């Protein structure tokens, strides 16, 4: 799944790490946001790193599977 791009079909929760893991800020990624998976696979219920607008965001794999469509 690494390198695959997805478009969000609904606003979706993400977690932005600021200053490494010292500060984690919940954010809402907007409808139609494009994210690129930095690590994978997208199985299970763990968190996955995605790249969004130059920021690394943690997202739940379940959210990507249910709220996003893969761009080919």
Characterization of this structure:
The chain is mainly β. It has one domain. It has one helix at residues 61-67; strands spanning 5-8, 12-18, 23-29, 34-37, 47-52, 55-60, 68-71. It has a 7-stranded antiparallel beta sheet. The protein is globular. The mean pLDDT is 89.
Please describe the topology of this protein.
Blueprint: E1 5-8, E2 12-18, E3 23-29, E4 34-37, E5 47-52, E6 55-60, H1 61-67, E7 68-71
Antiparallel strand pairs: 1-4, 1-7, 2-3, 2-6, 4-5, 5-6
What is the helix content? under 10%
Number of spatially distinct domains: 1
How many distinct helices?
1
In N-to-C order, the SSE pattern is: EEEEEEHE
Shape: globular
Q: How many angstroms does the end-to-end distance come to?
A: 12 Å
Radius of gyration: 11 Å
Share in β-strands: over 45%
Low-confidence stretches: none
Outline the biggest β-sheet. Answer: 7 strands, antiparallel
Count all strands and give the number.
7
Mean pLDDT: 89
Structural class: mainly beta
Strand order of the largest sheet: 3-2-6-5-4-1-7
């Amino acid at each position: 799944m690494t390198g695959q791009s997805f478009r969000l079909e609904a606003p979706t929760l993400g977690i932005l790490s600021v200053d490494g893991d010292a500060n984690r800020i919940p954010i809402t990624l907007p409808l139609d946001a494009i994210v690129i998976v930095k690590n994978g696979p997208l199985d299970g219920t763990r968190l996955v790193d995605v790249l969004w607008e130059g920021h690394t965001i943690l997202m739940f794999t379940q959210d990507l599977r249910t709220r996003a469509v893969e761009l080919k």
